[in-house]
Amino acid sequence: MGRTRKDALAEPASAETAVESSPDTETASGGARLSDIAYERILEGLFERKLPAGAFVSQKELVQLLGIPVAPLRDALRVLEAEGVLTIHPRSGIQFIKPGLELTRATYQFRSIIERAAIRVFAETAEEESIRSLEKRHLALVSAIEKQGLNARHLTEVEALETSLHHAVITSLGNPLVENSYRRMHNYLKLLRLERKLTAPLVLRTLKEHLAILEACRVRDPDAAEAAVTAHFAAALQRNLGMY
To answer: Which residues form the HTH gntR-type domain (predicted)?
Structure first.
C-alpha cells in the first residue's frame, strides 16, 4: 500500500529521531514550545530567502538549516501544510508554496472581507489622537520620499506604517479569532511581497491610499472609510499582479 503524508514524516528510529521522545524537546529554555519556535523559524527562512519560494527540501535538510529537532519540526510542518504554506510529499520531501495568481487573489479577498467590516468600527471608535498620529507619520514619509527619493530607511517606515494601520483596524473589532486568522494571513502577504519591486511612485500611491482611509476615519464617515479600503485593496491587488 502507498504511504500517507503522515508516513512521510515518520522515519525509522535513529539518532536523529531519538529526540522525539525526549521531554526536553517540548519547550525551550524561555518556556516557548519548540513546535512554535520551529513554525516561526520555517517562516523566517522563507522571508529571509534561506528557503526560496517553491523550494523542495528534505526533512533532514530543514533540521540542519533551522537547528530544530525532528519532533517539533514535524508538528510545525503539519500546521504549515494545513495553512497551505507547504505540501508534504510522501517519500520525497517538503515543497514550499510558490505564490501565484490564485494565492494573491485569495489573500486580498480575505483582507477585503475582514477589513471592510473592521474599518467601519475603527472609523467610529478609534481615538482621534491615534488617527492623527498615523496621518502625521504618513504625511511626513510622503514628503520625505518626494524630496529625497526612496531609500532603505523609507522602506522600513513603509513596512512599519503598513503594519500599524492595518493592525489598528483589525484590533478595533476586539475579536481574537479574527486577529489570529489575520495574523496567519499576513504570512501569505509577506510571501507575496518577496518578489515585488518597489519604486517611489508605487510607494507614494500606497501611502496616499492609506491617507484617504485615515481622512475618512478622522471625520467619522464609515461609508467613505469602507469605500477607501475597498479601493486600496483593489489597487494593491493590481500592483501585486504586476498590473499597476
So the answer is: 32-99
